[in-house]
Design goal:
Length: about 200
């Protein structure tokens, strides 16, 4: 037998005209529908709860911007007119020249950046900056650093292919709560530079 009369259908709820009465099959149909509704309700609650718990774990921290201020020197002398290129995902997005040794850029969160400092007669300096890591606070961070140019003549006669890589890496440290230099990487670069200088001096 079928249900005699359906008065209203709203989402998954079926209201039966009580005056007609319900036989065994009608009751079984209603029980099946109600069980499915309860199961769907539980699954929906679990899904919402898991989504709320997983989202902070997958995307911790907040979006922010980073204002960088660089100062270019050579033997403690300010370098003016050095060309500074800003790369985002390996594409040049901005260029400027140092004034009183200084340059500035605004970097946005979630991106890998590279800064390239170029001056004729000097080794090109590259600084890698990552804003991929989400920060503890929103808003703007400020990071200042110094770039020391090296004369290309100091490395004549040696393999300088290592200098094609960044001489410094700057990234956000969740432990420090701020942007920092990668100390381990910087130590390795300094050791490589010292070795190349010694090799160049030995060949003169």
């Amino acid at each position: 037998k079928s249900i005699d009369k359906i008065k209203e259908i709203d989402v998954a709820f079926i209201i039966i005209d009580a005056e007609k009465g319900l036989d065994g099959q009608d009751k079984r149909i209603i029980n099946i529908v109600m069980r499915r509704i309860r199961i769907l309700s539980v699954l929906l609650i679990l899904f919402i709860g898991l989504s709320a718990a997983i989202k902070p774990a997958m995307f911790p921290g907040k979006e922010s911007s980073l204002e960088i201020k660089g100062y270019v020197f050579e033997n403690n002398e300010k370098v003016n007119g050095a060309l500074v290129r800003l790369y985002q995902n390996n594409k040049i997005v901005q260029m400027t020249k140092t004034k009183k040794s200084k340059f500035e850029f605004i970097l946005f969160s979630g991106m890998p950046y590279m800064i390239e400092v170029v001056k004729p007669g000097f080794v090109t300096e590259r600084i890698q900056i990552s804003t991929v890591e989400r920060t503890e606070f929103g808003g703007k961070y400020v990071y200042e650093f110094r770039v020391d140019l090296m004369k290309a003549s100091k490395f004549e006669g040696v393999d300088v292919s290592n200098l094609d890589f960044p001489t410094a890496i700057i990234k956000y440290s969740p432990e420090e709560g701020e942007y920092v230099h990668d100390v381990v990487y910087s130590k390795q670069v300094k050791a490589d530079l010292r070795k190349m200088r010694e090799e160049a001096r030995a060949k003169k």
